[in-house]
Amino acid sequence: MNTRTETGFTPIDPALYAKAFQLLDPAPEPIDPATPAALTPVPFTLPAPPVRQTGPVEKTLTDALAFLDTNGWAKGTLISPEGARCSIGALRAAAGARNGAYCDAGNLLLDEARNQHGKQWESIPLWNDRHSGAQVRSVWEAAIRRAHHMNI
Asked: How many other CB atoms sit within 10 Å of the CB of residue 100?
């Protein structure tokens, strides 16, 4: 085997090489092996977690369920004499207007009602009036979870 050691590079002057490093780092600190190096604390802060904004559909559903919790739930009427409301009445109170969030929240609520209680339900009032308070609440909570998961 023949190993070639000649590279064709110009040889360096070691003194010139040392002088170049001295110019880059003119006064290096001498290291005393007997003294441990002092550590300078580096401040470390975690970035703030992203703030999740509640979507308009989730907010409408959450506000409507809070309205039902506060004012009561009703069957067979939009608003009872005592101020309790059915599910559609609570949605209207929470949305304030028949806007996009109101429509989307109603569609999501009805879809969840159909998931839990069968596909035969054509409207929120029909479904609301034929189920117990616990069944209605279960649908509301599931719809809120879906809206949260969908970030809407």
From this structure: 12
